Give the backbone structure.
Amino acid sequence: MTVAAKIRELIGESGLAEPDAGGTPRAVPASEAECAVILQAAQSEGWRVRIEGCGGWMPADAPATLALSTRRLTGVVDLNPADMVVTVRAGTRWNELRSLLANEGTWVPLDPPGSDRSVGSVIACATAGPLRTGFGTIRDQLLGQTLLTADGRLVQSGGRVVKNVAGYDITKLAAGSFGAFGVITAVHLRLRAVPRADLTLVAHGNRDELLNRARSILDAGLIPAALELLSPKASPADRWTLAVRLVGSDVAVAAERDAITAASGLTFEKHVASHAADFWQQTLAGVTATPTTLRMGALPSSLDDALDTIAHYLDENCEDWISVNVLAGVVRWSGAADGGQLRLIRGIAAQHEMPVTLERAPWSVRSEVGHFGAYRDRVGRIVHSLWKAFDPQGVFAVPLGDRP
Amino acid sequence: MIPSQALVALADAVGPEWLRTARANLDTFSSDGLPTHLSRPAVAVIPGSRDEVFRILRILHHFRIPFVARGAGTGLSGGALADEASVLIVLTRLNRILEIDADNRRAVVEPGVVNARLTAAVEPLGLHYAPDPSSQTACTIGGNVAENAGGPHCLKYGVTSNHILALEVALPDGGLVQLGSPGGEPWGLDLVGLFVGSEGTFGIATAITVRLTPIPSAIRTLLADFTTLRAAGEAVTSIIAGGLVPAALEIMDSNCIAIVEESIYSAGYPTDAGAVLLVELDGMDEEAVASEARQVQEMLASGGARSVQLASDPEQRERLWQGRKKAFGALGRIGSDLLVQDAVVPRSRLPDVLEQIGAIGERYQLSICNVFHAGDGNLHPNFSFDGSQPGLADRVQRASAEIMHICIEAGGTITGEHGVGSDKLQYMPLVFTADTLDMMSRVRQVFDPHDLANPGKVLPAKACQQP
Ligand SMILES: Cc1cc2nc3c(=O)[nH]c(=O)nc-3n(C[C@H](O)[C@H](O)[C@H](O)COP(=O)(O)OP(=O)(O)OC[C@H]3O[C@@H](n4cnc5c(N)ncnc54)[C@H](O)[C@@H]3O)c2cc1C
């Protein structure tokens, strides 16, 4: 029996969509139960499965026996604004969730880069954006999830409550595992009320100067919602740009604006409402204009080194998309690089205790170097043992990391 | 029984004066903050350096002897208890602050550093360590990491796991692993996130890199009193739904107020109130915080508060907080035994669930005191009782189980910050399926294949068996 015929047998004609460009059959389960049946078959038949969201982040190019799309696992399961928690299926488009929540006066304070993302992709790849400064990363908004492991078992962790220490935090383990631990089918996210004021301040200058000004903002004890240094390619202004986002009550935002202007000594342009939204949207969408994106972590005081390392090994002409989270000490770079270059920079960065995660790349590149690598002693072994615990037979086509 | 060769090796590793084997010396370690659970370890070792911790674990691994880490022993789930077959590793001598890096707002500490001491050390720099369990003057950062401890101000600032950047861990085989990087980015998976809250079952955290947070310059504390607990719960729901994020939202019910007011910790709370609600707002700007405080004041008044006190200077604020902070201490003094629950419910369910808890107390003729992190929906119904009274302990257990069930039915969970330990093992199958428990046990085996680290805690025995 062909793979397509098997899918048809298991979940019916409606569970089968058009095959991908290379002819790989594509399953579109409409429920967790259907998804579980498919995975059980995959495990017993020895298939390799590629998990697909909206296709706006990772290219859907992993060689596989079957493509499994979450496009029918959509919709909000539960939204009670009084609890400030939403439960949403993983195939839902991030932008749809955002506008749906906005109608209720709430939001999830996350601004993932890329444009056409599914909720599952944002969580599985743990791609936090500039709002990480004020609100933390994916794991800080993620209260729980439902995960289908490679053998089709349903693993539920966390829940609809905002505090929870029952059992091990498998939620945090799967967020950022690029789908290697299973299909995330639904998540519980923490909500906030849409802030009354939302202001973006923008200033231009040279890289090191802006970085220093950003540090003086932090030294004054201020924590804006976002404080991001953008390369000319990443900035709509085509110059090195310091972008600050302030959210909150009118009084608080006005006070913060004055304090930031005083602490930095910069003259800012102000963007509000749709201007501000356009600014960030343009910046964040630009990340996928080139094939490869990586994230490098550093001490905030060593960001200059991190940027120099990237300039030296990947971006000599300073033409690439770079966005620096000054408080978290994280540089995101987007451009073109081959496996050898990526392996080299990851090794060099590791020597300086700067972890590099390959966030997206064509299959030829990511399968060669893996999303993770150049681990600290024994971390590699733990990562691989955990991976094996969730997917012993390697059902999911995810090149999580170099084998240690 | 611990083989004598192992004892010799342990004495050699830490120095004989730091190895305790006499029963009398071990009695101090036979319970944690929960007097209802007792278990005496075979031996206690008290290492004086991180290096000694690694040596101890290598010895124990060699002899396949189980171990339990212990910080200050303030835990409320029986997590730090070891039995006659296990060695207790007491970490209180590892109390050095290794590095304070104000530029990057981080510090590196040994696990035995007491929570409040860290904050005191960084206060002159305008910083603090935000997670503030009510036990903060006693509990250790290592214990906080193991339990993923919370505290009143975690509503706004997040719990322990939001503040841990990196960990040096002694694995159960005595090997060293560094989880996370100095700036907080993971090496691959979020193993720091996984380790925090693992209750000493993955190994011992020997060095902890924490995030430090600027001290807010503007603070307002409000104390509202309500005639019913339900009304106080409803006020919390409306503040949360209204979109404000106070730094803290804490409730004490009338039983609790009475106990505090009769104790040496009396804070002047109105003893005829059904409940008091403490609200704290903070930020970097006076005017902004003052305006939020006015908003909250209005919400409280329209929610039926009889009176609202507002404090801005540190002394007055301290007075309003005093009763809340000392409530557990006061409770501990009235009965010989104390059962502390830690269930969490969705915040909109607070008013109903609190009413149901009251009804359960009446039905079992038990006095239940509620003092809890209301903004997080994290309940602490407490039973203070005399365990020697015939049948009483049993009645308390049954009432407590009933409360647990109604919280789970309301969409909640069994523990918000105290951990499962040994106390809540029986409830794990109520919130997790067999498949999920099995997956958790596989994760545990990655760190501890020989089941040496705090065996018997967190996962019920069945889940720990190999499939
Ligand atoms: C009056 C009172 C108020 C409290 N208030 C709060 C509160 O507001 N919020 C809250 O969350 N908790 C609270 N607690 C509970 C308790 O204080 C916390 O759980 C605290 O984190 C325990 O720290 P400890 O040092 O006492 O740890 P212990 O009780 O000694 O140990 C707790 C667990 O941690 C493990 N452990 C200890 N050190 C390490 C290490 N270095 N590496 C690995 N595992 C380790 C132990 O094996 C054990 O499982 C309160 C307790 C009391 C008595």
Notes: The pocket of flavin-adenine dinucleotide is lined by residues B 32-33, 68-76, 79-80, 91, 111, 133-135, 139-140, 142-144, 146-147, 149-151, 199-200, 204-205, 328-329, 417-418, 454 (CB under 6 Å). Chain B has a mean pLDDT of 95. Chain B has four domains: 4-90, 97-214, 218-329, 335-409. The CA atoms of residues 240 and 375 of chain B lie 7 Å apart.
